[in-house]
Amino acid sequence: MAGTALQRRLTWLTAQVRDNRSESPSVHRLVLDVPGWPGHRAGQHVVVRLTAEDGYTAQRSYSLASPPEEPDLHLLVARLDGGEVSPYLTDELRADDQVELRGPIGGFFVWSAAADRRDAQEGRRPVQLVAGGSGVAPFAAMLDHHRRTGSPTRLRLLYSASTQEEILARDVLGPETTVTLTRGVPAGWSGEAGRIDADMLRRRTFPPDEDPRIFVCGATMFAEAVSSSLLDLGHSPSSIRIERYGSSGEPS
């Protein structure tokens, strides 16, 4: 199904809102029912389109935070003051409202348990995920997919959040996840503190001699800093896949 989804001509689909709930002080989780959805792979994204009464349209891309096994699509939408799309999605949408979306999109920034089973050599390589803020969305899909399929692939997530209240996708974060807080570390916090740097990557991720497949997702400056540190640690450029978000905070 996923291969078909990648090759098909993408058309706009009508999604019905099942739920719109607060995930953190700055992020909402949209749960969408999309009739005709062709299926997706963990790591892919969709484009959401809003159309005003005068015909003006605005579009934004959002990573899918739900695994292929989940029939509804989940999006983690960060509300941006002054944004054209996110304030409407977070503040105005209600259950049974409709939005347009197109997808699934992307075949590079994906991970599949089935693909690892088909390629035994590739499946022996661990998977390292590194997320900043709402960049954890595609990794929520990967973690959930990994767990639901019982995949033997070794997988870890290093996740940077600003505060404990801003940690997203808590329902799928498990012992394979290390969270670091960059602001307001509470008393008794057992995770890391501070921004992800070379030292934290050295301590909390798979080392270069294990040849991990590495996925990095977050704001542009975050993604570039992390990828540069990974290269300095000796990881191969061909092993690193990056999904950057624009300066506006929404995917680019």
From TrEMBL:
GO molecular-function terms, A-Z: 2 iron, 2 sulfur cluster binding; oxidoreductase activity
Listed cofactors: FAD
A Pfam cross-reference name: FAD_binding_6
UniProt keyword list: 2Fe-2S, Iron, Iron-sulfur, Metal-binding
Domain FAD-binding FR-type as annotated: residue spans: 10-111
Domain of life assignment: Bacteria
UniProt-listed InterPro entries: Cbr1-like_FAD-bd_dom, FAD-bd_FR_type, FNR_nucleotide-bd, MRET, OxRdtase_FAD/NAD-bd, Riboflavin_synthase-like_b-brl
Name assigned to this protein: Ferredoxin-NADP reductase
